[in-house]
Amino acid sequence: MFTSSDLALIEGIAKIAAPNEACGLLEGTTGKDEYTVTTVHPSDNLASDPADMFEVDPRLLLRLQRELRDGPTDMIGIYHSHPRGPAAPSATDLAMAWQPELAWVITALTPKPHTAAFQFVGESFEPLEISVT
Fold first, then answer.
1. Which residues, other chains included, contact 15 with Cβ-Cβ below 8 Å and sequence gap of 6+?
2. Separation of alpha carbons 115 and 130, rounded Å
3. Residue 116 forms beta bridges with which residues?
4. What is the longest distance spanned by two Cα atoms in the chain?
5. CB burial readout 43-52, b (16+ within 10 A) else e
């Protein structure tokens, strides 16, 4: 579940980053088959080829893991954009998938911004429903 402002923030960051991929981490809570985003944490894309892949800044990841330890929220997801492709996991995404408990949120920019969510299960991605409040 996203607030409309958090979803707009992610899509806005994706537009600004284009033609490169945008990326970041999602903080929130999880319940039975539900992720609730409370904070969007944008990251610089440190990938060697940011137009075709993403790499979240490891300093952000480590800082967030420390800050959220034993707190009411957790790191629940990772987001990135596909400036020229669909809002669906790519072969590169599948090869780089990590931490199956995280939601993967992908924003496509064409023909207009569209965001979808997935969870890495086994060796593939399964769609997650996105709801907006």
1. 109, 113
2. 8
3. 106
4. 42
5. bbbebeebeb
Specify the number of domains making up the chain.
Answer: 1
Residue 30 lies in a domain: yes
Q: What is the Cα–Cα distance from 15 to 31, expressed in whole angstroms?
A: 31
CATH of the domain at 86: 3.40.140.10
Domain containing 25 equals 4-102
Residue 7 CA to chain centroid, in angstroms? 11
pTM: 0.94
Q: What is the pLDDT of residues 94-112, one digit of tens each?
A: 988 878 889 999 999 988 8
Task: Assess if residue 115 is contained within a domain.
Answer: no
Quick: pLDDT tens for 46-56. 999 999 999 99
Contacts of 68 (CB under 8 A, 6+ apart): 27, 74, 75
Tell me, yes or no, whether 110 lies in a domain.
no
DSSP assignments along 73-126, one per residue: -EEEEEEEEESSS-SS--HHHHHH---TTSEEEEEE-SSS-EEEEEEEETTEEE
107 belongs to a structural domain: no
